[in-house]
């Protein structure tokens, strides 16, 4: 048989296999060198070969030595390197997420949505024009097909346009120095006071001597305009921002204060992961510490409140409790008394600093002392009943004496440091504060004034499900991580100390922390933030202990190789953590967070700063008061730190009332003396509801007529003058702001503006009167009720709680049902406007509005419309639909807004929707439009009311 050429090509691998089977000599370099020197005269080529072999083998030995050295170094330093790497990794997660708003990635999504919408709209117009008879579903299908084709064919041009629009949005959200505007409202409070620290050396605008103790204190002249107030004691944040800015500015002279403040929460939150890691590591090892640190870094609700630019005090409420707890626990774990006492001193010092940063400092102080007290009791009971020790022997127990000494010292030193940083009264507050916290949202029990805290979003009451969802974050409504945390508390009970004894103080601390903060969260959802440190530690314990036990089980019982067992467990635990959805939710919130401040707001307020007189006052609802002070650089009536004052009612009524003279009279009263006119009047009358009514009588009058009314109510001439000093002064310039954001808040400011002081007084009195007979007699005599009316009112009030029930009963929540919408023309005189799924017809010739139904004709409660140089209100008494209709001229057409009857012709409606038409006392100072189309109107009050505004030259309605 003839062989193929390829058959002849073969390789014999046997020699190579034998070569690899040979065993290498133990010390080839020594052997070769010995043979060459003693038996042979070596050829030069052989010498070279021997030398090369020697160098090669020496290099291999050096490599072995270096690897050995590395291994030894790793064993020596891994206890430092591994924690360091894990902490840095967790910190990097924290920094990365919190810096997302700086680059504003969400603007690209806005831009793409805007451009795509424009393209689709153009295509849709063409389809409607070319194929008017096609069904809508088919039209939309064609639009989508054509849109997809257009994107494919013009992708580069579209993307270029998207980038241009995104750049425009980003520019609108950054200042002239390229810094993203600070996020939220409260950071501007701290910005202004940090500026004061840099300029004056203290947080206030000036120093004033306190009439209480004769001591000079920092004073804020911009609050409670025109009076001001002494600065609160917990102003650490302002000093921290200012002094760290000075240090950073030395390194980076181009850094602005706004730019640095943007970084402050990023820095503080990055630091917070360190104590979380080391606290948890003590029980659950490096993995447990890392998981706890990552949760501190990425927990969604905490992330949202501490993201870059949101430079409020929330980071301290995680950082300080964690650091204090870490140092405190280390003090109890050390066996050296001197070291323990030093650590207790440091923990106490940090408690003092914490009291300087936030008024709720006391909660971690109480938690630590309570946990130690329970642990102490547990140890005594254990030694008495289980170890059968005598009481005398227990007293001599070195560990228990250590606990007592450390705890007493912690309490005393904390009192000293809190007093030094703030005051002794602040330290005493750890007893009073938990009690007063329970009443934070009570209505009408101690005062007849409305409680604004019932409407602050972060103070909204939460149920248990909401608390779990807020703290657990992500999928399964947060329940997965919450259950894991509860498991962690249970595992903490099994922790043993260095002597092998069960150490339950960690578990007791976590248990107290959980129970107390969950209870606090029932009063306000923001308090779930206080739960985060304990939550993170508990979750970390579960993961760390599960890893440790699982690894031991797999290697000892199932004889699985250590590395494989560890890798498998880490993978499983990673999947478990990832499946919670916390990381995904954190990223979503980080990318989606954007500042509320923009160029429109900044330009509007800067105009006030440039043009207003130095003593001018800015008035509006309280939410943006910190912006007004920081950027408008003028005093405000109230803001985010004074919203719980009576000005909430006065300002709410300014916005709600339909009487311009009442609105201007109330503004003058507040600009003359804040709430001092009421204080002076009620000091005489001693009946708040009657004093409020009297003030409403006099604010619409001139000074002389107002004085006559006051004297008619029983005041002396001197007493009347003391009231008029604060109600009828020569007022300063006033800038009144109405903005789009106030529409959504209308129910709140409308509620406080409509506050019924008669009802509030009745509720307050009856809730504090134990006897039914006394209550009925009070209603009959004070409010002239018949016995039947008194009995009915008593039954009403008895059925009410002290929270939302009371709020709803005392006053309504009037608001707006829609944004400005367009009516469609039916014929030359008739328009159709859709009101809450009901079509309301409006006749522009007869000024009538009606709804046609099969049974009868219905009407809005009122029709508000422009009529010449004024506005008109057409009211309907019967067959009404419960809301009013405001129609606004728009060229030859009509736009409309649906509102509660109380809001229909109110001042906000007239200033915002009707642009001040027909008003005399409000002159448009500036109008700005945000990049999102939101309007901002700033009005300068004309105290003389010289002429009417004409916002519309013609009206559609007759």
List the helices and strands and how they pair.
Elements: H1 5-8, H2 14-21, H3 28-38, H4 44-98, H5 100-103, H6 106-130, H7 136-153, H8 155-172, H9 186-200, E1 206-209, E2 216-220, E3 229-230, H10 236-251, H11 257-298, H12 300-305, H13 316-333, H14 337-357, H15 362-385, H16 391-395, H17 398-421, H18 424-437, H19 464-472, H20 479-492, H21 505-523, H22 532-556, H23 562-579, H24 582-592, H25 599-611, E4 617-619, H26 625-630, E5 635-636, H27 647-656, H28 660-673, H29 676-685, H30 688-698, H31 703-712, H32 717-727, E6 734-739, H33 741-744, H34 746-753, H35 757-767, H36 772-782, H37 787-798, H38 804-810, E7 821-822, E8 824-825, E9 830-835, E10 838-843, E11 848-852, E12 857-858, E13 862-867, E14 870-875, E15 884-890, E16 893-899, H39 907-913, E17 922-929, E18 935-941
Parallel strand pairs: 4-5, 4-6, 13-15
Antiparallel strand pairs: 1-2, 2-3, 6-18, 7-16, 8-9, 9-10, 10-11, 11-12, 13-14, 15-16, 17-18
Helix pairs in contact: 3-4, 4-11, 6-7, 6-8, 9-10, 10-11, 11-13, 11-22, 13-14, 14-17, 15-17, 15-18, 15-21, 17-18, 19-20, 20-21, 20-22, 21-22, 22-23, 27-28, 27-34, 29-30, 29-32, 30-35, 31-32, 36-37
């Amino acid at each position: 048989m003839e062989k193929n050429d390829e058959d002849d090509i073969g390789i014999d691998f046997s020699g190579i296999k034998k070569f690899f089977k040979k065993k290498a000599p133990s010390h080839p370099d020594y052997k070769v060198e010995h043979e060459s020197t003693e038996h042979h005269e070596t050829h030069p080529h052989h010498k070279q070969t021997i030398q090369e072999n020697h160098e090669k083998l020496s290099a291999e030995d050096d490599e072995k030595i270096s690897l050995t050295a590395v291994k030894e170094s790793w064993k020596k330093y891994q206890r430092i390197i591994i924690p360091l790497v894990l902490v840095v990794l967790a910190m990097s997660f924290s920094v990365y997420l919190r810096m997302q708003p700086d680059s504003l990635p969400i603007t690209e999504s806005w831009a793409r949505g805007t451009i795509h919408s424009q393209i689709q709209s153009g295509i849709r117009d063409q389809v409607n024009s070319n194929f008017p008879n096609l069904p809508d579903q088919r039209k939309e299908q064609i639009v989508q097909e054509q849109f997809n084709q257009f994107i494919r064919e013009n992708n580069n041009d579209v993307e270029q346009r998207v980038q241009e629009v995104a750049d425009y949005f980003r520019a609108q959200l950054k200042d002239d120095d390229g810094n993203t505007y600070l996020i939220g409202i409260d950071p501007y409070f701290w910005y202004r006071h940090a500026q004061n620290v840099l300029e004056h050396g203290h947080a206030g605008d000036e120093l004033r001597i306190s009439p209480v103790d004769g001591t000079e204190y920092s004073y804020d002249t911009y609050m409670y305009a025109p009076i001001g107030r002494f600065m609160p004691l917990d102003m650490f944040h302002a000093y921290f921002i200012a002094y760290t800015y000075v240090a950073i500015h030395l390194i980076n002279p181009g850094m602005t204060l706004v730019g640095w403040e943007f970084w402050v929460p990023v820095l503080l939150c990055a630091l917070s992961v360190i104590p979380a890691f080391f606290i948890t590591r003590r029980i659950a090892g490096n993995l447990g510490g890392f998981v706890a640190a990552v949760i501190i870094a990425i927990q969604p609700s905490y992330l949202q409140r501490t993201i870059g630019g949101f430079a409020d005090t929330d980071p301290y409420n995680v950082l300080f409790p964690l650091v204090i707890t870490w140092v405190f626990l280390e003090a109890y774990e050390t066996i050296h008394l001197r070291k323990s006492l030093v650590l207790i001193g440091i923990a106490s010092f940090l408690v003092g600093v914490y009291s300087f940063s936030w008024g709720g400092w006391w909660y971690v102080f109480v938690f630590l002392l309570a946990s130690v007290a329970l642990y102490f009791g547990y140890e005594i009971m254990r030694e008495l009943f289980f170890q059968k020790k005598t009481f005398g022997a227990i007293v001599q127990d070195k560990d228990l004496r250590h606990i007592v000494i450390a705890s007493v010292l912690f309490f005393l030193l904390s009192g000293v440091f809190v007093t030094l940083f703030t005051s002794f009264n602040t330290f005493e507050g750890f007893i009073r504060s938990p009690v007063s916290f329970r009443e934070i949202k009570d209505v009408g029990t101690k005062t007849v004034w409305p409680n604004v805290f019932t409407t602050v979003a972060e103070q909204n009451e939460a149920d248990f499900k909401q608390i779990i969802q807020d703290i657990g974050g992500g999928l399964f409504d947060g329940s997965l991580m919450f259950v894991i945390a509860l498991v962690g508390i249970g595992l903490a009970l099994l922790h043993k100390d260095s002597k092998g004894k069960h150490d339950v103080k960690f578990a007791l601390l976590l248990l107290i922390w959980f129970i107390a903060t969950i209870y606090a969260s029932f009063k306000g959802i923001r308090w779930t933030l206080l739960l985060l440190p304990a939550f993170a530690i508990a979750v970390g314990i579960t993961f760390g202990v599960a890893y440790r036990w699982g690894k031991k089980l797999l290697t000892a019982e199932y004889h699985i190789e250590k590395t494989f067992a560890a890798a498998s467990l880490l993978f499983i635990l990673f999947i478990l953590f990832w499946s919670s959805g916390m990381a995904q939710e954190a990223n979503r919130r980080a990318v989606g967070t954007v500042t509320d401040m923009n160029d429109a707001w900044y330009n509007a307020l800067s105009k006030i700063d440039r043009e207003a007189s130095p003593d001018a006052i800015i008035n509006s609802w309280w939410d943006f008061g910190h912006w007004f002070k920081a950027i408008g650089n003028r005093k405000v009536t109230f803001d985010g730190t004074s919203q719980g004052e009576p000005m909430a009612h006065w300002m709410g009524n300014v916005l709600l009332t339909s009487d311009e003279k009442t609105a201007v009279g109330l503004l003058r009263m507040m600009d003359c003396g804040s709430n001092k006119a009421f204080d002076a009047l009620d000091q005489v009358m001693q009946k708040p509801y009657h004093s409020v009514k009297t003030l409403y009588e006099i604010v619409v009058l001139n000074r002389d007529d107002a004085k006559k009314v006051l004297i008619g109510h029983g005041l002396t001439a001197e007493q009347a003058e003391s009231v008029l000093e604060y109600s009828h002064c020569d007022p300063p310039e006033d800038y009144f702001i109405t903005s789009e954001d106030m529409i959504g808040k209308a129910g709140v400011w409308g509620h406080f503006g409509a506050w019924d002081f008669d009802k509030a007084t009745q509720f307050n009195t009856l809730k504090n009167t134990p006897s039914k007979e006394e209550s009925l007699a009070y209603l009959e005599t004070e409010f002239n009720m018949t016995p039947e009316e008194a009995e009915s009112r008593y039954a009403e009030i008895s059925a009410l709680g002290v929270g939302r029930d009371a709020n709803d009963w005392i006053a309504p929540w009037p608001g707006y049902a829609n944004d400005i919408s367009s009516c469609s023309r039916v014929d030359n005189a008739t328009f159709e406007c859709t009101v809450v799924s009901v079509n309301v017809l409006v006749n522009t010739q007869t000024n009538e509005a009606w709804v046609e139904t099969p049974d009868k004709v219905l009407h809005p409660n009122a029709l508000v419309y422009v009529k010449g140089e004024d506005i008109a209100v057409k009211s309907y008494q019967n067959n009404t639909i419960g809301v009013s209709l405001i129609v606004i001229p728009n060229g030859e057409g009509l736009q409309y807004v649906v509102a509660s009857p109380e809001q229909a012709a109110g001042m906000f409606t007239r200033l915002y929707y009707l642009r001040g038409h027909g008003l005399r006392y409000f002159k448009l100072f500036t109008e700005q439009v945000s990049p999102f189309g939101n309007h901002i109107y700033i009005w300068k009050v004309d105290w003389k009311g010289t002429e009417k505004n004409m916002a519309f030259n013609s009206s559609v309605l007759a």
